[in-house]
Amino acid sequence: MNHTWKLKGTLFFFHSAMTIIISYMPVYFQALGLSGSQIGILLAVGPFAAILSQPFWGYMSDRWKTVKYILLTCLTGALIVGFIVFQMNEFVWIMFLLFIFFAFMSPAGGLGDSLAQKVSYERGVSFGSIRMWGSLGFGTSSLVSGYLLASFGIQNIYYLYAFFLIIAILFCTRAPDSTPSRKKANLKKALLLGKDPVLALFLIMIFLISLTHRMNDTFLGLYIVELGGNEAIIGTAWFIGVITEAVVFAASALWLRRFHPLTFITFAAVLYVLRWLLMGSVSGPGDILYLQILHGLTFGVFYLTAFQFVARLVPDELTSTGHLLFISVFFGVSGVIGSLIGGAVIDTFMVRTLYYMMFGFALLGLLGSLFYRAYYFRTRQGMKDKKRLAEMNG
User: What Pfam families does its record include (predicted)?
Assistant: First the structure.
C-alpha cells in the first residue's frame, strides 16, 4: 500500500508552518519596534544556526539509519522552543532563543526533502510529485495567513505557526521511513566531503545564486510594505510564487530527464538575473504579484535539480549528510550573509536598492554556473554523464 500521502501531509503542514516564519517574522520584529539592523541580525541568527545544525542532523540520520525519527525530533523541538521565543520582547533574549529554535526548525526542511527523495526513488515515483505538497502548503498558508494576521494582528503569529506544526508532527508519526543504506556512515568520510573539489565548487556556485534568493525571502515583505502594501498583499505574493513552484515540481517527471541538471541550473540562473532586475524596477506592490510567477521557474527548477544533483557527488551512505550540507549552504550560509547585508543596505538606502544589488550577485552566479559546467564535464563523473546523455539522445 502506498503511504506516500502521509509524507505529503507532513511536507504540506510543515511548509505551512514555515510560511509563518519566512514571510511574517520580519514584519513581526518590525512591530516589536526593532530597527532594520537589529532585524537583519535576528534574521541572520536562523541561517547561522542552520549552518551548524543541518550537517549534524543529516549525519545523525545517516548514522542512525533513520530520517523519519530525526525529523520528528526536530519538529517537536521547534514547537516547544518556538513558544518561548514568541514570549520575548528584548532583543538579546530573542537572539539567544532564536538560535536554539532554528537549530531544530531549519534542518526539518532538509530532512523532509531528503526523506521525500529517498522514498520517491524506492517507490518509483518522481521526487517532485511528493515535494510539490510542501510548496502547496507554503502557498496555501501564505494566502490564508496573510488575511488572518491582517485581521487578528501580527502579535498572534505563534498560535498560527503551532497549529500547522502540530498537524505536521501527527502526519510524520505515520509517514514511511526510508530504507537505510547497507554501508555504515563514517564520520571521517563525512568530514572529508568538505575537501572534495567537485562538491566544494558546486556549493560555491550554489551560494552565489542562493544568496539572492534568501535576500528576497527575508526582505520581500518589507519591500511590499515600503511600496504601500500590507500583510494581505504579502500573503498573496507568496501564494502566487509558491503555487507556480508547485506546478514546476508536479511537472518535473516530464522535464527533469530531458537535459542534464547543470543545464537547468544555468537556465534558472538566467531567470534569476532577469527577475531581480524587474523587481528593482516596479512602481507599486501590484507589480510584484505579476513577477511572482517567475518564482516557480527560478526556485522550482534551481532547487529541484540542484538537490538531486548533489546526491551524485556524495557516497550513497552519506546521502542525507550531502543533502543537509547543500541545504546549509542554500538556506544557511546564504541566509546569514544575505540578512546582514540586506539589513545594512535598507538602513542606509531603500529595499529597492537591495534588489539591484541582488541583480549583480545573480549575474555572478550565472557566470559561476557556466564555469562549473565546463569544469564538471572534465571530471570522471562528468564524462560518465556526458556518455549517458549521448546514449539517451542517440
Answer: MFS_1_like (PF12832)
pTM (predicted TM-score) = 0.81
Nearest to 114 by CA among 133, 98, 127: 127
Q: Which domain holds residue 62?
A: 4-176+189-393
Q: Which H or E run includes 315?
A: none
Distance of CA 325 to the CA centre of its chain: 12
Note whether 97 and 44 are within 8 A (CB).
no
pLDDT of amino acid 307:
86
Q: How far apart are CA 238 and CA 230, in angstroms?
A: 13
Question: Residue 194's pLDDT is what?
Answer: 67
Is residue 141 situated within a structural domain?
A: yes
Write the DSSP string, 325-379.
HHHIIIIIIHHHHHHHHHHHHHHHS-HHHHHHHHHHHHHHHHHHHHHHHHHHTTS
CA distance 369 to 310: 14
What is the pLDDT, as a whole number, of residue 192?
61
Number of domains in the chain: 1
- Specify if 184 maps to a domain: no
Residue with cell 525529523: 71
182 part of a folded domain: no
Q: What is the pLDDT of residue 382?
A: 77
| CATH classification of the domain holding 65 | 1.20.1250.20
* Res 30: pLDDT: 86
Q: With a cut of 50, which residues of the chain have pLDDT below it?
A: 1
Smallest Cα–Cα separation from 105: which of 175, 161, 50, 172?
50
Pick from 86, 85, 54, 84: nearest CA to 71:
54
Question: What is the 8-class DSSP label of residue 259?
Answer: S
